[in-house]
Design brief:
The protein has about 80 residues and is mostly helical. Helix content is about 55%, strand content about 0%. The chain starts with 17 loop residues before the first helix and ends in a 14-residue tail after the last helix.
C-alpha cells in the first residue's frame, strides 16, 4: 500500500529506445525554438524576408573585400 516499486514478480516497465528518446527531445526543442522565435510577431513571413535580405547584404559586404585605403574618418568635437 503506497509503495512506488513494482511487485517482485513483475519486471520494470520498458523504457523507450535511446535513439527514439533523442529524436523526440530534438523534435520538442525545435518546436520550442519556433514558438519562441515567432512569439510577439504578427507577420512571420515579413520578418523572415527581412532577415534573409540582411544576410544577403552582409554576405555581399564580406565578399567584396577590404575597404579602400584610409578607412573611416571621424571627428571629435
Amino acid at each position: 500500500m503506497g509503495l512506488c516499486f513494482p511487485c517482485p514478480g513483475q519486471s520494470a516497465p520498458p523504457s523507450p529506445d535511446l535513439e527514439e528518446k533523442r529524436a523526440k527531445l530534438a523534435e520538442a526543442a525545435e518546436r520550442r525554438q519556433k514558438e519562441a522565435a515567432s512569439r510577439g510577431i504578427l507577420d512571420v513571413q515579413s520578418v523572415e524576408q527581412k532577415r534573409k535580405k540582411k544576410e544577403k547584404i552582409e554576405k555581399q559586404i564580406a565578399t567584396s573585400g577590404p575597404p579602400p585605403e584610409g578607412g573611416l574618418r571621424w571627428t571629435v568635437s
